[in-house]
Amino acid sequence: MTTVDIKITIHANDRKIAAMVKALAFEVDGPKSVEGASKEFLETHGYLVFHFKSHEKADAFRDVLTMYLPRILAQERV
After folding, report:
1. pLDDT for residue 30
2. Quick one: pLDDT at residue 78?
3. Bridge partners of 48?
């Protein structure tokens, strides 16, 4: 099965904002979507990677991310 990975930049590597983004990903597609999205990864790379089962789940995550958090706090890396 192919997963859709989305990289999200977190403003100032803020762990509280990262926790909110992780919670949204978890709600959209469960625990596998947030595997590896650790504070250590964020500190090292400056972004987090989320893994979704389908393009539909990835699009749903993008929608809720923009609904609940302004782009200045968390945005998709292109």
Report:
1. 98
2. 82
3. 8
